[in-house]
Amino acid sequence: MKFILKTKNQFDQKIKFIVPFSTIVDYNKKEIIKIRKNKIINGFRKNKMPVDLIKSKYEKLIQKKVINKIIYKNFNKIIADKKISIINQPKIIINQYKENYDFIYSIYFQSIPTIDINKIKNITIKKLSITNNETDLKYYIEYIRNNHITWEEIQDKIKKNDKITIKYHIKYNENNTLIKTDKKIFTFINNKKQIIPQIYKNIINKKKGDIFFLTIKLPSNYPLITLQRKKIEIKIQIIQIQRKKIIYSQKQFIEYLNKKFQTTDIKKIYFILKSKLEEEKNYIIHKYTNNQIKKQIIKLYNLDIPKKIIKNEIKIIHQKLNEKYNQKYEYIFQLKYHKNINSTIYKKFKLEFFITSIINHYDIIVTQKEIQKYIRNTPFNHKKSIVKNIYNILLNDKVNQILLKIFQIKKHPCTFPKIMKQMFL
């Protein structure tokens, strides 16, 4: 078998295969032997049917099986040998298949581009170095205490991060008919990372009972098709405002720690918290490094992703959003349903393709033993959220370890309180 691999651009490839007619003959013989063993034709005993009769009766079946076996066996071998990662359904064209002639066919497909390692050696990554300070533990204890909160109703003006319950209804035109929804209730945290800016800005300093109106034009990719590109009017009434309240006083918090760690020994509690602080620092360094690597890949990895791939992904995301939407109009207020997802998808593919190329280039694998070891050694407070994704986490960690050897590393010293505020507050 001969093959010619041609690359059109970063993604599009074509492999032309030329299979000698003698190979076709060999495959045909094998298929005929199988039929003789497994098929029965009236008037003949099993395994005694004439070859000519089998050929005439099962010609199309034999041809189909032979073609499929040859095509996929050869294609899969080239893909494995060349470490090619396919990202679409290959298109197969039969150029020639006839008696006494070589079998010629072509396969068109898209694959993840390979990376020139030399071109990424100049990428600089900031590696976090958390300076140790005696006040770190005190800050960490207060951070834990401040995260044990309840919500308390207030009569004050609305501020950032308050929990707000509103009553609202919307109006819009549908084929020159005014559509008005029933009044609905929606509760949300007033955070600009989650709520559209029109709501976030206009609701600040409002009080319980206040009524205001907003006009919003919904984007073309809005989940509910009937509201795409529609200009809607929203009437909003504030019916409740809640603010965070720390549950424990300092004395109550000490009692909580005694119960949690099952000891009243202050030294033991100190060493447990000190250990957890170190775990937290290591976790932050790991997360910060991952974020830095992702940021630099997205920024510097040039990739002209075909529009068709982006469109297909957008279609899939819209389908999922539509299923999730289920006529819940409160999604109008949520920022994620207003964002242009093209940019997000592009970044996602850049990361995925880059990581896959590194995995292929360095033959990175994750073993079952490594997964079990990770489960045993992972700190309890982080294990819950990642158990389902352990394989991917370990794979990404191995990729990052290799990248840190390739990239230029620049130390980034930072205090524990400062990095906690940057990443979590």
| Biggest sheet character | 6 strands, antiparallel
The total of helices stands at 12
What structural class results from the helix and strand content? alpha+beta
Give the name of the CATH architecture of the largest domain. Answer: Orthogonal Bundle
**How many independent structural domains?**
3
Give the terminus-to-terminus CA distance.
61 Å
Annotation, overall tally of beta strands: 12
**Uncertain stretches of 5 or more adjacent residues:** none
Shape: extended
Helix content: 40-55%
Radius of gyration (CA) equals 31 Å
Main CATH class of the largest domain: Mainly Alpha
In percent, how much strand structure appears in the residues? 15-25%
Instruction: Give the averaged pLDDT, no decimals.
Output: 88
The name of the CATH topology of the largest domain is: Trigger factor, domain 2
In N-to-C order, the SSE pattern is EEHHEEEHEEEEHEEHHHHHHHEH
Verbal overview:
With 425 residues, this protein is of the alpha+beta class. It folds into 3 domains: 110 residues, Alpha-Beta Plaits (2-Layer Sandwich); 191 residues, Trigger factor, domain 2 (Orthogonal Bundle); 96 residues, Chitinase A, domain 3, CATH 3.10.50. Helix content is 47%, strand content 22%. The protein contains 12 helices and 12 strands. Helix 1 packs across helix 2. The protein starts with a strand and ends with a helix.
